[in-house]
């Protein structure tokens, strides 16, 4: 990792949505436990009229992009009516050319698409606006059924809650699962949701099982070293195996056993980052049995080996 904190600029456009602005500002907060520094900026310093009756007084203008390693573009009202100011579009392009990472939350994807940087790439936005984004920017491959899309140095996400998922994904990319889980605990947020999870799943009869399933996931995380089956999880949730499996996919984007496997690999990642345990010890600790089994699943999920991962995310980050 670099010797200085990663710099994050959060762009406030006219009509900015309060949650969309607040999520990256809070997650990448400038605090001792976080290797990030945040500035909130606008097209110019001063007052920016937001959405939902709020306004923002920002200290920085677009010059903050020259400072930033990552630029966040929160969602804003009426994105389908006109493109953002030309100077904003030009500044985003210049930041990208300089090597900055650009990430949009919700309708911020419209401003990112206006730069042309999403042409030929997958992207998403809030489900209510996916068709408008596709119509306004036909060269963008709009995926209306995912929470976020990572195209390397340009990223997009759906509604506000999926902005949390995107931010946690970037923390994991930058500094490993240990810090990401620390941030998730601070936010009281799910430590990971699949970016490919559906944005919106209509149900004819709502089933209020969210808290129950969350408790079962917490229970599973405490018992990863033990053999776990779908039946075990369903019994803990006190529902049938069939109901559990179906609702689990809706809630997380993974089948129960896919989720358990990823949870085991994530705990292994954290142990690799924060302990000196050997691969065999870690495999036993997380319920994967042998070092060979851990290496197999580690490579399938992350595309690297435990030893290479440990080398990248050395203890202390």
Summary tags:
two-stranded antiparallel ribbon, alpha/beta, 14 helices, globular, Rossmann fold, 10 strands, single chain, 2 domains, 317 residues, DNA-binding transcription factor activity, Arc Repressor Mutant, subunit A
What is the count of structural domains?
2
Main β-sheet: number of strands, strand sense, barrel status? 6 strands, mixed
Q: Give the CATH architecture of the largest domain.
A: 3-Layer(aba) Sandwich
CATH fold description of the largest domain: Rossmann fold
GO molecular function: DNA-binding transcription factor activity; sequence-specific DNA binding
Keywords: Transcription, Transcription regulation
Protein name: DJ-1/PfpI family protein
InterPro entries: Class_I_gatase-like, DJ-1/PfpI, Homeodomain-like_sf, HTH_AraC, INH-QAR
